[in-house]
Xylose isomerase-like TIM barrel domain-containing protein (Byssochlamys spectabilis), 369 residues
Amino acid sequence: MSSFNGQATLPSPPPSEPEIHTSFRSAIATISVGAPDLHPLKTKLDAISKNGFSGIELFYDDLHRVAKELQDRDSERSGGISQQGTHTTEKYDIKAAFEVKSMCEQRDLQIVSFQPFRNYEGLLCKSEQARRITELQHWTKLATILGNDVFILIPSSFLGESKTVGDRERLVEDLTLAADIACPVRLAYEALAWGTHVNKWEESWDIVQRVDRKNFGICLDTFNIAAGIWADPATISGRSSEKADQNLQQSLQRLMHDVDPDRVFCIQLADGERVDPSATFLHIPNQPTLLGWSRNSRLFPFEEDRGGYLPVLEIARAVTNGIGFSGWVSMEVFSRTTKDDRPIVPSEHAARAARSWDKIIKSLEKTSL
């Protein structure tokens, strides 16, 4: 499968033909422009807005930091007496949600999603399951405050098999309950490539169909699709097998044939960096190799100069034009580069994302399936 360079351009289509990109709206995850503990959310939102994005995927860690700041402010006013110890209470989360919503409105940014609600389905411990259900009720309240059309992203669980079951009926039961609890707030289910029991888009789509709730859909992520089918960062070639290209093409053909675009709540774009197979973060005990790679080495599409090598454009074609998708397309990049404490990091990453967005849209416009 050939690499793409995104350099050539073609004339604009005739006026009678609508431009493909008019059906897409650009978003970016707040985690993709800076670490929550190093870069204030206001700074990140400023960078995102200035670089032309219309929406954000809000990470809970960013909301948590705002909540902690509000708590500290109240503590100072009360003479240093904390009302809740070291943890942010639901009260401060709610205050923070109103604050974040206001911050976004001031910058003309829409909050697309609130995420990630991790490791929910298939829990063996009944008390932990009950705790997570209560937590989901709280998240639903926060999502309602954040906006009328915010969805909660639920990635597939990557807890060990000693803590979760993989029985498909049980997973469907848990996620159906989640959809009913959250209704009318939407939930998007995403197959993480390192998920314990669900790690392919096919599996997540099967679950979405079985749940069969209008507010329960799927999120398709180019990185997770490629990592689950095509890539293996721990090999010299960077690929999973000699049949990686063939396996990916067959999977994308199924995706374009099977997936209902109305059930796709968001598309996420990211490439992956070609790394040294002996890199330390790939070999952390009790951690999946793909998880270490994802957290440290994602890139924005068209960043081959930084080591990007995944077939992102091919996947992006399938999950957008290929299924007739229209809606939010978000840049979701996790990287060790966001953990740099320089104040300019959010601006640098938002500018990189904007360049990537421009190239990917131009490539989708000039490429027909």
Notes: Confidence is low (pLDDT under 50) at residues 1-21. The longest strand covers residues 24-29. The chain is about 40% helix and 15% strand.
